[in-house]
Amino acid sequence: MNTVTVYTTTRCPYCVMLKNFLVDQNIPFKEINVETKPEIMNQLVNETGQMGVPQTEVNGKWVVGFDPNNIMLALKTGRNEE
């Protein structure tokens, strides 16, 4: 099964676009708002080296920004490894 976690902030238009894309594709995801959890933002920066959002973890792989193609690619490769 795929695990998708989207790291967002409250006023991020690309975060909204990304969440809408996932909903449209019927891809379940968990959202973590890093504005309300600054310690998680610190973990993200340590993990990916990126300050921006959205950042999406798909089956342990990171996709930075609004990047539907790489999200779909990560979902496909995740299924092949199961």
From TrEMBL:
Listed name of the protein: NrdH-redoxin
Pfam families in the record: Glutaredoxin (PF00462)
One GO MF term attached to the UniProt entry: electron transfer activity
SUPFAM superfamilies: Thioredoxin-like
Native species: Sutcliffiella cohnii
UniProt GO BP: cell redox homeostasis
Alphabetical list of InterPro entries matching this protein: Glutaredoxin, Grx-like_ET, Thioredoxin-like_sf
Segments forming domain Glutaredoxin: 4-63
